[in-house]
Amino acid sequence: xxxxxxxxxxxxxxxxxxxxxxxxxxxxxxxxxxxxxxxxxxxxxxxxxxxxxxxxxxxxxxxxxxxxxxxxxxxxxxxxxxxxxxxxxxxxxxxxxxxxxxxxxxxxxxxxxxxxxxxxxxxxxxxxxxxxxxxxxxxxxxxxxxxxxxxxxxxxxxxxxxxxxxxxxxxxxxxxxxxxxxxxxxxxxxxxxxxxxxxxxxxxxxxxxxxxxxxxxxxxxxxxxxxxxxxxxxxxxxxxxxxxxxxxxxxxxxxxxxxxxxxxxxxxxxxxxxxxxxxxxxxxxxxxxxxxxxxxxxxx
Length: 300
What we know:
Elements: H1 2-10, H2 12-41, H3 62-79, H4 84-108, H5 120-153, H6 161-197, H7 215-233, H8 240-259, H9 265-299
Helix pairs in contact: 1-2, 1-6, 2-3, 3-4, 3-6, 4-5, 4-8, 5-9, 6-7, 7-8, 8-9
């Protein structure tokens, strides 16, 4: 039943349908956002709830990026039954896209002046554009390291019964996450929207900034998922270096989650440190494993 439900949510046909639907919604969202900006500029309507996204046409690119991120979240859930490095890599792709998305809001608020480093908006743009480049490079190195190890390992042998059960468990987690994350997304967006249009309403939720909507709760859920995967992985192996690797990835996810609770340079530093920490953990893990293999070969 778990395999059937997993196929229902993540079959090739389903993924294609989700991808095409998200693309159509993203294009429509971009046009609607752009239309709102010009209607406000021409004085036809007035919306004062979130001017940072309605003052400049450049900010309209923020909306399609948001829907692209929704599809990336769907893919992350799809990758949970695969290797932990593939799943973690998708987390890093999502936080990198979040930083890139924030650039459009930064560009809309940019003020070209001689007092560049005295303006908070200009400073945020500087932090984000540097962080985007660093994160993109770290992500490239992480994927390169993962791919090299995959090629070396071969991974052509049939999985053992315990591994099959572990994969089945991860599929079950993925199935549960689909309605859970959908519900969280609907709730966070609706409470934010209510807060924008009616700040005094009982459902109104206050967010530190628009970038944290949904993803604050999303990465909190991922921390729980990571801990569950770590605990259940003990049924497969209790090797020290594997425990450290999986625990290190949990620390990396926690750092990403913490970055949403603060703004400015510290937030950017936390994001970069989280990906850098995960990369170093993976690098040391593979060196550790290679050394163990060498010792076993010499003993045999």
